[in-house]
Design a protein that fits this description.
It is a single chain. The chain has nine helices and 13 strands. It is an alpha+beta fold and about 350 residues long. The strands form four sheets. Strands 1, 2, 3, 4, 5 and 6 form a six-stranded antiparallel sheet that branches. A hairpin with a 7-residue loop joins strand 11 and strand 12. Helix 1 crosses helix 3, helix 1 packs parallel to helix 9 and helix 4 crosses helix 5. It is globular, with a radius of gyration of 24 Å. About 35% of the residues are buried.
Length: about 350
């Protein structure tokens, strides 16, 4: 009678097959999770930006008016002014909780219709430096379900009000955040390095702003003078940090010194006379020098019809701008269904 038994060679082959299948399954699972995070984070940042625009429009083009500051300083007021007005912009899954909280509170302030939960919206504004304030926000893409880990299904953002070191308004701007202490820094108007610390990062070192894995941006510029309301993408799939630097140079959120520290320079097609004035101070000039930057800025100017006489054209320079990249097709059936559910 013949006995059936596994030989060592057969066992080895089976083990190899199992390992390969496991690796493939893990890779697919990881990609699905990353794609889901990309889609939901795009939705969260877009919604927050639109909500902030709504706050500005509802308050006579002011993001945080004097009455808001007075309201928040009133100890008899139990709710946070920004949270209340921000929540008004949405059809939420349930009533918002805008009761004033401490910084880093675990209180869920609101849940969007797609299940994304926000914390930190009702916390007090924190001062980065003179003229610039922010709130640390935690985006939880699936509420209290799943792993609840920063960098996996929870992501740190900040919403700002006030002006940056160059005096440009950041009212209502939303930025992803790096949890690494080495990256979470800004320069103030006096050139002093200011270290920040996100209230929800805890021990995580997840870098969302410096990576394009979860949140990425495109850089755009007007390229047809006859169509100044249309723009062309000149660089895509950039991290928030890199996109800001190559589009805005020292006039951006991060500023020239931080851009220089990462080796980012102004994109040649983003060269503009405003950005060329001090680019040499930081070594971030398009073309490698201020003179080359100015030459590129001149070549980037477009013939635009004059407002007084459309038959006459005048050379006009358009500054680049950044937009968060919408997750594209090619992510499979799971991503496609999520996009449909979110209506984006």
């Amino acid at each position: 009678m013949r006995k059936c038994a596994w030989t060592l060679a057969e066992l080895t082959i089976v083990m190899i097959v199992v390992l390969v299948l496991t690796a493939v399954a893990m890779s697919i699972t990881k990609n699905v999770n990353i794609n889901k995070s990309r889609i939901y984070m795009y939705s969260a940042i877009r919604n927050m930006t639109m909500g902030n625009i709504s706050v500005i429009e509802a308050n006579e083009e002011t993001f945080y008016p004097i009455e808001a500051e007075t309201y928040d300083a009133d100890a008899t007021k139990t709710d946070d002014w920004y949270c209340l007005h921000f929540a008004d912009a949405f059809s939420l899954k349930s009533s918002p909780d805008c009761t004033k909280t401490t910084d880093g509170s675990n209180t869920v302030n609101m849940v969007f219709a797609n299940g994304i939960a926000l914390r930190g919206v009702a916390a007090p504004w924190k001062r980065a430096y003179d003229g610039l304030y922010y709130k640390d926000i935690l985006v939880d893409i699936d509420g209290d379900e799943n792993i609840n880990k920063v960098g996996v299904d929870r992501f740190p953002l900040r919403v700002f009000r006030g002006t940056n070191a160059q005096g440009e308004s950041l009212d209502g701007h939303v930025y992803p955040v790096d949890c690494s202490a080495a990256n979470d820094k800004l320069y103030d108007s006096a050139g002093n390095l200011v270290s920040l610390s996100h209230s929800y990062c805890n021990s995580s070192s997840a870098n969302i702003a410096s990576s394009d894995e979860i949140v990425s941006y495109g850089v755009y510029r007007v390229t047809d003078g006859s169509k100044p309301t249309s723009a062309t993408m000149i660089a895509g799939s950039k991290s928030a940090f890199e996109a800001d630097c190559i589009a805005y140079g020292s006039r951006g959120f991060y500023g020239g010194a931080l851009c220089s520290s990462k080796g980012y320079v102004i994109h040649d097609r983003c060269a503009h006379e405003d950005l060329c004035t001090d680019c040499a101070s930081y070594g971030i000039c398009a073309g490698g020098s201020s003179s080359n930057c100015i030459t590129l800025a001149e070549s980037n100017k477009l013939n635009v019809p004059s407002e007084d006489d459309p038959s006459v054209t005048e050379k006009t320079g358009f500054r680049c701008f950044t937009l968060i990249s919408k997750p594209t097709s090619g992510m499979g059936m799971v991503a496609g269904s999520l996009l449909g559910d979110l209506g984006i």
